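User: My advisor asked me to double-check a structure prediction for hydroxymethylbilane synthase before group meeting. I don't want to rely on an old file, so could you generate it fresh from this sequence?
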Amino acid sequence: MARNGPESTAGARLIRVGSRSSELAMIQSETIVAALKKLHPELEVQITTMKTIGDKILDKPLPAIGQTNLFTKELETALAGGQIDLIVHSLKDLPTTIAPEMKVAVIFKRDKSTDAVVLHSKHKGKRLQELPSGSVVGTSSLRRIAQLKRICPDLVFKSVRGNLNTRMKKLDESGEYDALVLATAGLERLGWLDRIDQELDSSECMYAVGQGALAVETRASDDSTNALLEQLNDMESVLCCAAERSFLHSLSGGCSVPVGVFSEVRDSELFLEGAVFSLNGSEMIKSSAGVRLPTGYAEKSVAFWLSQGEQLGKELGAELLAKGASPILAKAKEESEIGRD
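Assistant: Sure, here is a fresh prediction for hydroxymethylbilane synthase from the sequence you gave:
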């Protein structure tokens, strides 16, 4: 049965948004709220913030914590309990398997999906490949480490945790790091494009599944909220991100295994490239696939876009498994779990 949703004291429809509490998370939530209110100016919106497991445990690399829902669990509990109506996520933080009573209602127009290098001031003007041997690069991403070891074998990679503001302060002030590798989109949303010293293309570092995209998670049964949100979906972003998430799901991957992707819609074709890596970057299995989209695909339903993407991702995942990805993934997962306790 459709829900009418809560009402404010003035009788207007009230939408309650759940968000992580960092500055970046709030900017992302406010982006979705602004887009929603542009479509439905009569709505009242309330943002509720909370800290997740990933925000609270900062003394361990992400894979060592041992959960896939590090940045979503507390928010999803509030959503399931009816305390909020929707959650705004960085899509890359949202596991590819969510509870059956939940729904990814929106994949918003994607920002840049690439990774970026931010250098300490003493290295300004250089590229990552030009840093002195032994330079320390901060990142908690196994995907980034595995790929960058292939092109920069003499660099040292060290975990760095905390929100973007915290990580940038550690780079500038701690003396521990010569550079950071971060998502370009996060830096752009915070207005820090001038801090980017190098943007890595996919030949250097394939990006994370869903990177650069914002997603809105709702209760699947909340028909009225889902109807309000549907127009926020961006066709190309839905196609590409659905393909990427299906690919990762078919590999049973998460933050504990190095998996990289590249996707785009070009000349009426959905193209997806995916790869799995060993933790030290010495092994890689990579392949690509595409599907021709029918005439008028842009006018078709969100469900159609999802189905096209999901099928392509599933096929590419099966191809990599057939080429021998399973042993690499299993070994990477095993190695990443060492020292978890």
